[in-house]
Amino acid sequence: PPDASRPIVLRLPTLRPRAPAAAALLFPGRAGSALTAEIGLMRATEQLSSMEMMAVDPLRRVMAPRCWAGVRSVPL
């Protein structure tokens, strides 16, 4: 490969501009996995079933505020 012959000093400047793009891809993944884990735990402990029994829509009560917050925070 052509990169193997180049020293690390020359490869570093080509990686620096890519760091913000990598961070931009990793942050939503982390936020999404945290949201998935929280909702999975709520399902495992039957909190969502309890909300349905109390005639509370879990989609509106749990998911909607989190999705709306994600949409609102994207421009930041």
From TrEMBL:
<dbReference type="InterPro" id="IPR030802">
    <property type="entry name" value="Permease_MalE"/>
</dbReference>
<dbReference type="Pfam" id="PF02405">
    <property type="entry name" value="MlaE"/>
</dbReference>
<dbReference type="GO" id="GO:0043190">
    <property type="term" value="C:ATP-binding cassette (ABC) transporter complex"/>
</dbReference>
<protein>
    <submittedName>
        <fullName>ABC transporter permease</fullName>
    </submittedName>
</protein>
<dbReference type="GO" id="GO:0005548">
    <property type="term" value="F:phospholipid transporter activity"/>
</dbReference>
